[in-house]
Specification:
By secondary structure, the protein is an alpha+beta fold. It has 4 helices and 3 strands. The chain has a single domain, classed as 3-Layer(aba) Sandwich (GIY-YIG endonuclease), CATH 3.40.1440.10. The chain is about 35% helix and about 20% strand.
């Protein structure tokens, strides 16, 4: 069986007014879909949430889904704390992929 990584991630928009939490097994592809507004009626498309500001990785899909639910259930302040710990400048982490 192939090892697989799962990612729990947070996206925001330019003004950091919205936070979107998701889970995927292909972060680059999923981020591309958000950025290109593949689903025009989705939350991320509607609010232009396409800046990747946080992610974490696990090899267990159940852990990833559980963690996504935990983050989603948390307050905005808790999400901001998570982002600030990993990415205090709130840079778009996907920009590192081009280097």
């Amino acid at each position: 069986m192939q090892d697989r990584n799962y990612f729990v991630y947070i996206l925001t928009n330019k003004k950091h007014t919205v936070l979107y939490t998701g889970v995927t097994n292909d972060l680059m592809k999923r981020h591309f879909l958000h950025k290109t507004k593949n689903q025009p009626d989705s939350f991320t498309a509607k609010y232009n949430a396409n800046l990747l500001v946080y992610y974490e990785t696990t090899s267990d899909v159940c852990s990833a889904i559980s963690r996504e639910k935990q983050i989603k259930a948390g307050s905005r302040a808790k999400k901001i704390d998570l982002i600030n710990q990993m990415n205090p400048e709130w840079k778009d982490l996907s920009k590192e992929w081009d280097q």
